[in-house]
Amino acid sequence: MLNFLFYITIFTFLVTLGTINFSNQIWATSANSESVTTSSINFEGIVTKVTDGDTLNIMTKEGDTITIRLALIDAPERNEPGFNEAKNFITEQCLDKNAQVDPDNNQGLTYGRTVAVVYCEGVNVNEAILDNNLADIYQNFCEVSEFADTDWAREHGCSNTRGDNNSDDNDKKENPAESGSTNDNGVDISDTSKDLDCKDFDEKNIPVGEDDPHNLDADGDGIGCEG
Prior knowledge:
Blueprint: H1 2-23, E1 43-52, E2 55-60, E3 65-70, E4 73-74, H2 83-94, E5 98-103, E6 109-110, E7 113-120, E8 123-124, H3 125-131, E9 136-137, H4 151-155, H5 167-174, E10 206-207, E11 223-224
Parallel strand pairs: 3-7
Antiparallel strand pairs: 1-2, 1-5, 2-3, 4-9, 5-7, 6-7, 7-8, 10-11
C-alpha cells in the first residue's frame, strides 16, 4: 500500500511540473528546436547577438534564444548606407546587457521572429534608434502595430499614415512577402540578365527560396532584403 501511494505521489508531482513548464513557454525560435509553444507575455533576458539595426537575439532565463524584430523600425539593410551605424548603435545599447521585451500582440511571429519593443537597461531602443536618425519608422505597419499610437511612434511618422491608405494597399503592406518576386516597378528576381540589389526593390522580405541568383538573402533563411 505504501509503495502504491509513493508512486501516485511521484506521478502527481511530474504531471504538475510538466504543466508549470508548459504554461511558462513563450513566443520563441529556440537554439535547440525549430519552434517553441507561444505566448504574448512580456519577458526578459540577455542580448546575445545583434544582426542589424532592427534585429537581435535574446537568451531567456529558461535558456531559449529568441530572435526579436524591433516593432515599427525600418533600419538599413546590409550593403545599404547607414547599415553599420545602425547595427553599431543597437550593439552598444544592448549587446550582453539585460533586456525587457514587450511583444506586439497584433503581429505575433514574423518569419520566425517576435515583433516587439525592447528595453535595454531600461532604454527603449525602438525609440532611441529613431531619435538618433539611424532608422525610419516602418510606416507599412502603422495600421497594424499595437505600438503605433505611442508618443514616439506618432512623433516619427505613424500619425501621418493611419487611416490614409486604401484596403488593397494595406493588405499588401501587412504581408510584404505575399507580393511575389517582383517589386512595385516590376523587377523580377528570377531575371539573371543583370545584377540586382535590395535597393532595386521597393518592398522588403522578398521570398527567394533556395534559388537566390542575386544574393539577396544574407542570412540564408529563404527571405531576401529583410526589414
